[in-house]
Write a structure and sequence with these properties.
- The chain has 551 residues and is mostly beta strands.
- The protein contains six helices and 38 strands.
- A hairpin with a 2-residue loop joins strand 11 and strand 12.
């Protein structure tokens, strides 16, 4: 009777439309609905697939305009073409009911169902536990952290595609937007399922490209009134296949995706519902999301389980305040302080392991302290079988430390082949060797690329040419002093130039950056990174105004 009533209404409408000379055509329900399910990796030996949980569905029907897929795991998607690929994430072999609604003209629909059995072997039980705590956990923006909101490139450049290299928000930078820092992101667990609820208190911070979603307009990001899903939304975990995961570098990503259903998003609206977990601890969550409609950009969010208070010292404990000066050398005297520094001399093993061309000496021609500066000079001369001399000083066995902020104000040498470095080596180097001891390169520079400054981390599996590196442009590196800073904690290692972060690395207990290190300052010539030596090169110096360590 209801269907007849609807047809009668449509008939009346058509009569009226004919008087206005409009026509809808025949109202025909889709027919001959067929549903095909292709399980990835399905063979006679693996009838439930390859464990990826991937299934491609193809729905066809006569007179259908679009298709809606409704799954018994609580998700649904619209596919106008009738073709849809879905990853089922419940671990193990599971059977799902799939309902397809084929819609025709004027919304007349035909419904059909099928079942699919598929295996999913992906699991991240630890992430589930960390996100939800005892069952429910609330997360907040880590507004007191540099880079809690940032954006970077999303491409195959493994040196820069895993951190916010375009922009990083300063602590509490967005406080004037009123709404973003108020958001509460609530994760809860029901059995093995993860659920999410965003409490936005009636307003959401929108990226400028998506202001129209909330009926807004303008030329910059804005907080706009916006209603979000009231009920908790299912979140599916799956393995990441991002460009960061493809880098294959430990410490860059956890490799787990958060797939939010029903258009869910993590506070800042950028038009995507899939977020990659880069790192996760009990108190800190770092995610990456590719911008909707612009695959060239990826946004980075940092959250904490303890809401920060501006000026109150609250929030996560992952970024300590290093304000206590524990060691420094201002180079105010006229000799290098032997209570703090020693010299490395000679050519080392195979040019200090890098085919370098210099002979390190302890002569004042190569290392001197005067006029408030440490000066390390590389120069061309025949000395003990080498064509160049230079200096290298270390604090090994004299000053060694774990965690802190290291500020070094320096001006770098010039000339093709020069390779100055301000770096640290694990204090257990003599017992475990390299790279097991760990190496933190706070600043490296090569004269053949005069405006580029690098940072790097070397550890087992990522050393030498496979180190975790990043770089930034410093146009006056050779002509002016700049402050090179490293902020080293148990959770992150950040590299800055003049207080601007350009490289962030997620530290963890499984890599060798959680014990004492010592400082090394040197200027190499040639070698694997220094490259070709300019035939006209005669001498050049690195000048250091000070080095200060805070904890």
């Amino acid at each position: 009777m209801k269907f007849q009533y609807l047809l009668l209404l449509f008939g009346l409408t058509l009569v009226a439309c004919e008087q206005e000379e409009y026509a809808f055509g025949d109202l025909t329900a889709p027919s001959n609905l067929q549903i095909e399910a292709n399980v990835a990796g399905q063979t006679a030996d693996t009838p439930d697939g390859d464990g990826s949980g991937m299934v491609t569905f193809v729905a066809t029907a006569d007179d259908a305009i679009t298709y809606k897929f409704i799954f018994s795991d609580g998700t649904e998607e619209v596919a106008p073409s009738g073709r849809l690929t879905k990853r089922f994430t419940q671990v193990g072999v599971n059977t799902y009911l799939v309902t397809v609604v084929a819609s025709g003209t004027a919304g007349i629909a035909t419904t059909g169902s099928t079942e699919v059995t598929v295996e999913s072997t992906f699991s991240d039980a630890e992430a589930l536990a960390l996100l939800t705590g005892d069952g429910t956990k609330t997360w907040y923006w880590a507004a007191d952290e540099p880079g809690h909101l940032g954006v970077g490139q999303n491409d195959g450049d493994a040196t820069a595609n895993y951190f916010a290299n375009y922009y990083q928000a300063a602590p509490f930078e967005k406080v004037g937007n009123t709404c973003m820092y108020e958001d509460e992101l609530v994760f809860s667990r029901q059995g093995e399922n993860l659920y999410y609820e965003l409490n936005n208190f009636g307003a959401t911070f929108f990226n400028v490209d998506f202001l129209g979603v909330a009926g807004g307009s303008g030329g910059e990001d804005a907080c706009l009134p916006y209603e979000v899903q009231e009920d908790a939304q299912l979140v599916a975990l799956s393995p990441s296949e991002s460009v960061v995961a493809a880098n294959g570098i430990p410490g860059q990503t956890r490799g787990t995706l958060l797939n939010f259903t029903e258009g869910g998003f993590m506070s800042y609206y950028v038009g995507n519902s899939t977020y990659e977990i880069l790192s996760l601890t009990e108190n800190r969550l770092v995610v990456r999301v590719v911008m909707g409609g612009n695959n060239a950009l990826a946004w980075y969010h940092i959250f904490t389980s303890e809401k920060p208070v501006q000026g109150g010292g609250g929030g996560g404990t992952e970024e300590p305040e290093f304000n206590n000066l524990v060691w420094a050398d201002e180079f105010d005297g006229n000799v290098l302080a032997d209570t703090s520094w020693s010299y490395d001399t000679g050519t080392g093993n195979n040019g200090w392991g890098n085919n370098e061309s210099q002979f390190y000496t302890d002569r004042p021609e190569n290392v001197r302290v005067a006029d408030g500066l440490l000066t390390i000079t590389a120069q061309r001369e025949n000395f003990s079988g080498s064509d160049f001399t230079s200096g290298r000083i270390v604090t090994q066995d004299k000053f060694e430390f774990t965690y802190g902020r290291i500020d070094i104000r320096a001006k770098l040498p010039s000339g093709g082949g020069t390779w100055p470095a301000l770096w640290m080596l694990g204090a257990n180097f003599d017992t475990v060797g390299w790279p097991a001891c760990g190496e933190i390169d706070m600043m490296e520079h090569v004269g053949n690329e005069p405006e580029r400054v690098l940072s790097a981390l070397h550890f087992p599996g990522n050393s030498g040419g496979n180190a975790v590196t990043s770089s930034t442009t410093v146009e006056t590196a050779e002509t002016e002093f700049h402050v090179y800073t490293t902020i080293w904690t148990e959770n992150t290692i950040r590299f800055l130039v003049d207080d601007e972060v350009y490289h962030t690395f997620d530290n963890n207990a499984g890599i060798p950056f959680n014990h004492d290190f010592f400082l090394i300052f040197n200027v190499a010539v040639g070698g694997t990174l220094g490259g070709a030596i300019d035939p006209a090169f005669s001498s050049s110096s690195m000048e250091v105004d000070y080095v200060r360590v805070y904890q």
